[in-house]
TrEMBL record:
This is ABC transporter ATP-binding protein. The lineage of its organism: Bacteria, Bacillati, Actinomycetota, Actinomycetes, Micromonosporales. It is found in: Cell membrane. SUPFAM superfamilies: ABC transporter transmembrane region (SSF90123), P-loop containing nucleoside triphosphate hydrolases (SSF52540). It comes from the Bacteria. It comes from Micromonospora costi. Pfam families: ABC_tran (PF00005). GO terms for molecular function: ABC-type transporter activity; ATP binding; ATP hydrolysis activity; ATPase-coupled lipid transmembrane transporter activity. The chain crosses the membrane at residues 59-83, 141-163, 169-188, 256-277. GO terms for cellular component: plasma membrane. Keywords: ATP-binding, Membrane, Nucleotide-binding, Transmembrane, Transmembrane helix. Residues 32-315 form the ABC transmembrane type-1 domain. It is a multi-pass membrane protein. Residues 349-598 form the ABC transporter domain.
Length: 612
């Protein structure tokens, strides 16, 4: 697990080029058009001011050509009227295309992570939250900011050139006023981005409490235990803490803006006094004074817009940095460029002195596990809660690599194999299986995407898991949405399907594993935990048929379900302490025999003898 970096580490903004490249690839047409429209829109006010000056000068001197200038001003006004609409449309178009590309890249990067470790790293999760919240808005904002920045430079350049022709000193004063504004706004933008990073964990906790209160699965406990108010208070406390940080920054922003406003007012006032005194002296004409005032206002408006653009682009760049960090997050497992192809299992899987812990500061979960699962045989794994059984399953799927020792597939270390190829060879029903808010058919079809729409195969898998009749009897059969949280798949009618019972869900998850077909290794982690005794008996009979002749690992606390496994192993405090057949282990009278006796004593008819 990595330490949460301070804001200093990522203060260096970068990525304008990356954002522009993304926009160029996503929407080259709108990008070019937006650039052109911005240039025209930025030059138009300068042209308009010059036309006005010329018009006023000619009116004063009685020169000809007033109509042409008037018509030109009208045309320019028309262009200025239409351009904002065109700009808005192009911006929206660019936003949509770039936002789509950014989301695609972000979630592709997430899906490329081969293991689970990053999802347990709070720093990564904070980054991911900011990146996913801003992935649709930040890259387009960076691009638009960069374009608008060029536009502001054009406007300022045009008006500044104009000012220089009238009074180089005033040009210098106006320009000098922009420098503190630029520095102050950039500092503010940095503080904003740093504040967003600082309040990241607070906001994530706030969302967690809010989500919990809106979660259907949590609703029962929340209501029974009366936790609503408690969670609301916790959510509000987090929100208040985040708001406090935001408020402090807003106040600082207010002070900065007021100071800048005063600075601009002083410069403006000075300019007007200078212009009035100069026109009285007759050094400049009416047209000059008009364009002078327009130029001062133009430079100041342009500078304010430039400063805002720089500050907001800078802030977006800092947020974009999170996006790029997530995108460039190195894989949590070393995937060698040249991996060994994963062959069909021939001899078996062997764990040699496997040591594993979830983090450098965490206790060891597995402490030198030696175990083999011979090809074509079934291994039943027994152990107390927390002994490391599910952890071992995660290592077999290569969600993590052991810190010491190795797991070998026909003698080849899993570290030398591509995890995706390895997982292709594994079918699994996890202890914490998923219940997807999708249709019944899709819930099963996800086990093998190639057969997502193969209804006969899906029904066959459901029959194998004993859930076909239940699903067929749903209001829309296999097309019923197994959720009440969404509307139906067409999105217009409330789903008339109901979520299933715990045991029915477990059978659906089992059907998903069955659909996966004849994989080389079948892992079943507590496959019958939610089933009634009859259903449990039924499912173990079905699973036995499904497992026969296959390499399988079966984990269950119901020891009766494991007794016919070819081999049993007992995991205790991270080590294999017993192994053998059911009869061997019972005869040995060790840990397994004790657990078996405790459990079976509950199934005798008549009074239960409680050991004192
Ligand atoms: N993602 C994780 N991060 C840190 N520790 C973990 C993680 N998952 C499990 N552990 C710890 O590893 C130990 C073994 O957990 P594991 O789930 O493998 O046990 P188990 O034998 O499957 O238990 P059970 O019979 O209750 O399902 C536990 O102490 C648990 O707290």
């Amino acid at each position: 697990m990595t330490r949460r970096p301070s804001t200093r580490r990522w203060r260096r903004p970068g990525g304008v080029r990356a954002a522009l490249t993304m926009a160029w690839r996503a929407a080259p047409g709108p990008l070019v058009l937006l650039g052109l429209v911005t240039l025209v829109a930025s030059a138009a006010p300068v042209c308009s001011a010059w036309l006005l000056k010329t018009l006023l000068d000619r009116i004063v001197t009685g020169a000809a050509g007033l109509t042409t200038i008037g018509v030109s001003l009208c045309v320019l006004g028309l262009v200025l009227g239409v351009l904002p609409e065109a700009t808005n449309y192009l911006r929206a178009e660019l936003s949509r295309a770039t936002g789509l590309a950014a989301s695609d890249r972000l979630y592709s990067a997430l899906n490329r992570l081969p293991g689970l470790a990053r999802f347990e790293d709070p720093t990564f999760m904070d980054r991911l939250r900011i990146a996913s919240q801003s992935s649709a808005t930040t890259p387009p904002a960076v691009v638009q900011g960069a374009i608008a920045l060029v536009g502001s430079v054009v406007t300022i350049g045009g008006f500044l050139g104009t000012l220089i022709t009238i009074s180089p000193w005033m040009a210098l004063v106006v320009l000098a006023g922009a420098i503190p504004a630029l520095i102050a706004e950039i500092a503010l933008a940095r503080r904003t981005a740093a504040m967003l990073w600082r309040i990241g964990p607070t906001e994530r906790r706030e969302f967690f409490y809010a989500d919990l209160m809106a979660n259907l699965d949590a609703a029962k406990e929340l209501r029974l235990f009366g936790l609503g108010g408690f969670l609301r208070n916790r959510m509000l406390t987090e929100r208040r803490q985040a708001d406090g940080e935001r408020r402090r920054l807003d106040r600082r922003g207010l002070r900065v803006q007021v100071a800048l406003g005063l600075l601009y007012a002083v410069i403006n006032g000075g300019g007007i006094i200078w212009a009035v005194s100069t026109v009285r002296g007759g050094t400049i004409g009416v047209g000059d004074i008009a364009i002078f005032l327009a130029a001062v206002a133009g430079v100041q408006a342009g500078t304010a817009s430039l400063v805002n653009q720089v500050a907001s682009t800078h802030q977006h760049l800092l947020l974009f940095q999170h996006f790029r960090d997530v995108e460039r997050t190195p894989p949590d497992l070393v995937v060698r460029p040249r991996t060994t192809p994963v062959p069909a299992l021939d001899t078996g899987i062997e764990l040699r002195d496997v040591w594993f812990r979830y983090g450098p500061d965490s206790p060891w979960v597995l402490r030198g596990v030696d175990l083999s699962i011979p090809c074509g045989q079934s291994l039943g794994l027994v152990g107390r809660n927390g002994s490391g059984k599910s952890t071992l399953v995660k290592l077999l799927c290569r969600f993590y690599d052991p810190q010491r020792g190795s797991i070998r597939w026909d003698g080849v270390d899993l570290r030398d194999m591509d995890p995706t190829q390895l997982r292709e060879r594994i079918g699994a029903l996890f202890q914490d299986y998923m219940a997807y808010d999708l249709s019944a058919a899709e819930n099963i079809g996800l086990g093998d995407l190639a057969r997502l729409t193969d209804r006969p195969a899906i029904r066959q898998a459901a029959q194998g898991a004993g859930v076909d009749e239940t699903l067929a009897a749903l209001p829309r059969g296999y097309d019923t949405l197994l959720s009440r949280s969404f509307f139906d798949m067409d999105g217009d009618e409330p789903a008339d399907g109901a979520p299933l019972s715990g045991g029915q869900w477990q059978r659906v998850a089992m059907a998903r594993a069955v659909l996966r077909g004849e994989r080389d290794l079948l892992i079943l982690d507590e496959p019958s935990a939610s089933l009634d005794p009859e259903a449990e008996y039924d499912i173990h009979r079905r699973l036995k048929r499904h497992r026969t002749g296959r390499t399988s690992l079966l984990i269950s606390h119901r020891l009766g379900a494991l007794r016919d496994a070819d081999l049993l192993a007992v995991l205790d405090e991270g080590r294999i302490v017993e192994r053998g057949t059911h009869d061997d282990l019972i005869n040995r009278g060790g840990c397994y025999a004790r657990l078996f006796d405790i459990q079976s004593s509950g199934y005798h008819r008549g009074p239960i003898e409680v050991a004192t």
